[in-house]
Each structure stands twice: as structure tokens, then as C-alpha cells.
TrEMBL record, chain A:
Residues 8-128 form the NIF system FeS cluster assembly NifU N-terminal domain. NCBIfam families: SUF_scaf_2 (TIGR01994). It comes from the Bacteria. This is SUF system FeS assembly protein, NifU family. Gene3D superfamilies: 3.90.1010.10. SUPFAM superfamilies: SufE/NifU (SSF82649). One of its GO terms (molecular function) is iron-sulfur cluster binding.
Length: 162, 420
């Protein structure tokens, strides 16, 4: 299992089994639905905003372990963060999973999200990890849907040249 | 046509299948993936290409390439003769009456779209009905939806049971005087079901309704006889039957093709053009506007040569044995559910693993060097029928082995171990 260790770490498997903040939020002030038409994955992200602050965040949906764990850990990371901080974290997360950011040498606020660094070695799985984030951003921007097909090729740059 | 073909003449003794010898014909199979020998079990998505096809395509590009049908020079004549030679091979392969009934297309998708545009847009009107089935690939759903939307026609769907078999009584009840065409798949890509298309055609013809058969998944496994089936259209993809991508055939009965509108306009599909009026060419050129995929279609001809050189009945029996063995092995694994349990199946096995998304299965199997497909297989209505988002699918060709099935089963057990 060593070669899979990078991708399916225990933390990811645990969040897949027991996703955190996994509920429909009735008092949400913003929500968006995200789709990956290639695999049929679907996620809905709910936000309760207080001005610029994300007071609460939750999600529901169906998808693979990577997308479910990414959504679960995203909700943990973004609670009590400002919109701007959320955008910035997404940018760092995106650059990490596409191989553009070395989480160990460049300064970043990724913290526990670094566990998704292994995704960069699985280019077809990058969209699984970023779908919940794209959906969160759509909700912040007041859009109702996000699709992985509308957001361009989320492919690890390391693999484009290869 | 040449040394390579002669070598293949006695690939196997009747009734016995020498899989190791067959595997030598497919260079791509002999590699490692993630440090493990490749087990290619994604044949329903695209099959691998034998050396004979690679050599034929290479020879064309090295020695014969030119545009077809319009040159007086030597190379153009050679290219034309190879291209039309491939059409004749297709004719014999599917037992069409005439080669001009075999239209070269990019694949089954283009073939179905050709019929939608050429036949559907001409003969389907408001209030008319088009009948498809619940197990169609999106390629045999979406074009008909587009047509129905444009014409104000209605799409009717033949239901299936939970084994993945079409309900023929319900099918018969769907047909009426407004039904303008029936379009069904011969073999389901998601479930493996082999449909009784001859019976489906007979029932439609009793009411004067033409039938299109999507043969993309049937051609690599079953003998195809369009005259015996008596279907009006039959669509094939070359890359699913050991040929190159970009090759394919739409068979149509000549009298229907004659009455249809062209699909695309352009060069090579005309008899004469003035700004006032264009007179279309006869069959098959009327449907082959522009320079076609010459090398690919010649490669398809070579794939047919290859299939003719092997004992196809023995190949089919061998694939069925692989299917039986894989079904038995996977059924014994707790948490595995096989989707598609029709009495008659091609060597396709769709399955789910409890609490594990098919994409995670696919990634873990890939690490073991095993290539399968994970997803909805461009058949979302099938997924909706079984109330699942996706399946994992292993699909076998006659070059796969029981050892590969064993590796598949072991890898699935590993998946369960990781996720539980």
C-alpha cells in the first residue's frame, strides 16, 4: 500500500467515512451546487455569512473519497475565516494540488490541508479535490452552480510537460 | 497484402484458444504500469490494436498516402484502392449486400448523428415518436433528444428489468402509427446485455418502422450479419474492434440512404455544383463530405483482416469463459455488487463496492497496473435505474487472461481493506 499512501492517507479515509459538517444548512445565507459531469460527482456547499466573515459552513453530496474528504476538511479550515482568507486559501490549495506550490518550502496557511499534496501525482483526481472549493467560491460570489467543466483544465502542471 | 497476413492464418486451432500466442500480436500489452504488468481491462472503452493494423497504417503513411477519389496520379489511385478495399472488407464483415451501403464515419456516434440528420430531420415531424431504450449510451440518446426538441416529436423509452434486460412486451406496446424510428443498442456498454435485436427489428418491421442498431459494443464480440438481422441501419466504431480511432461505419439499406438528405456538405459528396443548384453524388459519397480519415479506415480494414484470421467462435467462447470466471470470482467478494446480470451478456462486468466510490476503486486498481473504467459510462439513465452514481467496469477481450481476473479480484479485496 506504500505507493498509495500519499493519496489515501488515514486522515482522508477517516473524513470519507465520517465527513464533518455534513448537513443541509437551513439558515444558510449563500449556497451553491457543484458538479463534475465526467464522473457524476455532486456537492452542495452552504455558507452562513456575517458580513465578510464565514460564521458557518457545511456540505452535502455524493462523490469519491478524495472529494468528500476535501469538502469535509475545507469546511473545518474555513469556519470563522473571512471571504478574503478563504479565497487566498483556495488559491494556495489549488496551486499545491496542481504542483505549482511546494507546501514545505513556500510560506502558506494550508496547515492540515497539506495532506492533499499527494493529489498532484494523480492528475485525473485534481478535480475531485478542487470541486468543493470551486463550489464554495461560487457560493461566495453569489452563483448557484459550479461545474468542473467551466473552470478549465485543473490538471497538474507537472503532468502537462511530461 | 502480404507477409503479415499470411503469418496470421493459423493463429489458433479450432476450439482451442492460445491466448499467449494472441497476446504477442498486441504490442501495447507488453509493458509495466506502476511497476506491475499491465492488465488492460478497459476494452469496452477502446480495444488495443494488433501489429497487423499498426503495420498497415504505417505502410499507408510511408508508401501510399495521397488524397482519394480525385487524383489521376499513381499515389492517389493506390490510396483510393486501399480505402475502397477497406470498404469491401467491411461489407463482407457485416454481410451487407453492397459496399455502397457502408458509409465511412468517425465512429458509431457520428453514424447515429448521420441518421438523425439525414433520416430524422427529413421524416420525423411534430407529434411523431422516436423509440430508444433505457440502456442506451448517450450517443444513442442525445441526438434523438435534439431531433425531438427541434421537431416537436416525442422520445419514448423501452424499459428494462433489474437484470438489465429489455422488456419486449412493453416495447411492442410503445409502437404506434406515429413511431418513425426505433434506435437500440445491440450490446450495452454499461451492463454487457446482448439484446435480441433481430426480434426487435421484426416487431418494428411488422408495423413498417425502420430500426437503427448501435453496434459499437457488439462488433468486437459477435458475428454481425445485417441482412440476417434485417436492420435498416447499423453503426460501428473501429477503435472498439481492434482498429484505429477515427474509423467507423454506418451501414444503411441502400433504398433508405438514397431517400435521405446528406449529413454534411462539401467536397467529394457532389456530382455538380453551381451557385443555383448542387446535385449530390450517389452512395456512399453523398455521405462522405471532405477528406475522410483515410489511414484510419484502411486500418479498420486491417483490423477486419485480423479478425478474419483468428477463430472468432473460439475467441467468443474464451471471452465467455473469462466472463463466467470473473463473475464467479467477484460474486464471492463481500460488498461487491454486480450491475447487469442478463442471461445473455458480452464480456463486460460492471460492479460496485460497498462504501467505496468507483473512482477510488479505479485509482487503486491503476496502482496495481489494472486498467478499468470508473464512472457512468456515458449511460446515466442506466445508473439512475440502479440508483447508483457510477460503477467500476472491467471489460474483457480475447487477449485477456484468467490471471488478470485473479489480479482484479485481489486488487478489489485490497480496495476493501484500505477503505474499511
Amino acid at each position: 500500500m506504500s505507493e498509495l499512501g500519499e493519496l489515501y492517507q488515514q486522515v482522508i479515509l477517516d473524513h470519507n467515512r465520517k465527513p464533518r459538517n455534513f448537513y443541509e444548512m437551513e439558515q444558510a445565507t449563500a449556497r451553491a451546487e457543484g458538479f463534475n459531469p465526467l464522473c457524476g460527482d455532486q456537492v452542495t456547499v452552504y455558507l452562513k455569512l456575517d458580513g465578510e466573515l464565514i460564521k458557518e459552513i457545511s456540505f452535502v453530496g455524493s462523490g469519491c473519497a478524495i472529494s468528500k474528504a476535501a469538502a469535509s476538511m475545507m469546511t473545518q479550515a474555513l469556519k470563522e475565516k473571512t471571504k478574503e482568507e478563504a479565497e487566498k486559501l483556495f488559491e494556495q490549495f489549488h496551486r499545491m494540488v496542481t504542483g505549482e506550490l511546494d507546501e514545505n518550502s513556500e510560506p502558506n496557511e494550508l496547515g492540515r490541508l497539506k495532506i492533499f499534496a499527494g493529489v498532484r501525482d494523480y492528475p485525473v483526481r485534481v478535480k475531485c479535490a478542487t470541486l468543493p472549493w470551486h463550489t464554495m467560491r461560487a457560493a461566495l460570489e453569489g452563483r448557484e452552480t459550479a461545474s468542473t467543466e467551466d473552470i478549465g483544465p485543473d490538471i497538474s502542471s507537472a503532468h502537462i510537460s511530461a | 497484402m502480404i507477409a503479415a497476413e499470411k503469418d496470421l492464418n493459423a493463429v489458433s486451432e479450432p476450439g482451442r484458444w492460445d491466448v499467449e500466442r494472441i497476446r504477442r500480436d498486441f504490442p501495447v500489452l507488453h509493458q509495466t504500469v506502476n511497476g506491475k504488468p499491465l492488465a488492460y481491462l478497459d476494452n469496452a472503452a477502446s480495444s488495443q490494436v494488433p501489429q497487423l493494423v499498426i503495420e498497415r497504417g504505417t505502410r499507408y503513411l510511408r508508401e501510399e498516402h495521397s488524397n482519394i477519389h480525385r487524383g489521376v496520379h499513381y499515389l492517389s489511385q493506390r490510396a483510393t484502392s486501399a480505402y475502397e478495399g477497406a470498404r469491401e472488407k467491411v461489407r463482407r464483415f457485416i454481410n451487407a449486400r453492397e459496399a455502397r451501403e457502408c458509409i465511412f464515419v468517425r465512429g458509431a456516434t457520428e453514424g447515429i448523428n448521420l441518421v438523425m440528420h439525414g433520416y430524422g430531420r427529413k421524416f420525423v415531424g411534430p407529434g411523431d415518436e422516436v423509440v430508444i431504450s433505457e440502456m442506451e449510451h448517450h450517443a444513442n440518446i442525445v441526438p434523438w433528444q435534439m431531433l425531438c426538441e427541434e421537431k416537436g416529436a416525442r422520445l419514448r423509452v423501452i424499459p428494462m428489468n433489474d437484470a438489465g434486460e429489455l422488456l419486449l412486451d412493453e416495447y411492442e406496446a410503445l409502437l404506434n402509427e406515429r413511431t418513425k424510428i426505433v434506435a437500440v443498442t445491440h450490446v450495452s456498454n454499461a451492463l454487457g446485455t446482448v439484446n435480441p435485436v433481430k426480434e426487435i427489428v421484426r416487431i418494428a418491421h411488422a408495423r413498417g418502422i425502420p430500426v437503427l442498431v448501435d453496434g459499437a459494443q457488439a462488433a468486437p464480440h459477435l458475428p454481425i450479419d445485417v441482412r440476417d438481422l434485417d436492420c435498416d441501419f447499423y453503426a460501428i466504431s473501429g477503435h472498439k474492434m481492434f482498429g484505429p480511432t477515427g474509423s467507423g461505419v454506418l451501414y444503411g439499406k441502400a433504398e433508405l440512404l438514397e431517400r435521405m438528405n446528406p449529413f454534411m456538405g462539401g467536397g467529394d459528396m457532389i456530382r455538380s455544383v453551381t451557385f443555383e443548384r448542387t446535385i449530390y453524388a450517389g452512395l456512399p459519397n453523398k455521405f462522405e463530405a471532405g477528406t475522410p480519415a483515410i489511414a484510419s479506415q484502411i486500418g479498420l480494414g486491417a483490423a477486419i483482416d485480423y479478425l478474419n484470421s483468428i477463430d472468432r467462435a473460439a475467441a467468443y467462447a474464451y471471452e465467455q469463459e473469462l466472463l463466467r470466471y470473473a463473475t464467479e470470482r467477484l460474486s464471492k467478494i463481500e460488498g461487491v455488487r454486480i450491475i447487469g446480470t442478463a442471461r445473455e451478456k458480452a464480456s463486460v462486468i460492471s460492479f460496485t463496492v460497498e462504501n467505496v466510490h468507483p473512482h477510488d476503486i479505479g485509482t487503486i486498481l491503476d496502482q496495481e497496473g489494472i486498467a478499468i473504467r470508473a464512472g457512468h459510462h456515458c449511460a446515466q439513465p442506466v445508473m439512475q435505474h440502479f440508483k447508483i452514481p457510477a460503477t467500476a467496469r472491467a471489460s474483457f477481450a480475447f487477449y485477456n487472461t484468467k490471471e488478470e481476473v485473479d489480479r482484479l479480484a485481489a486488487a478489489i479485496e485490497k480496495v476493501i481493506e484500505v477503505f474499511n
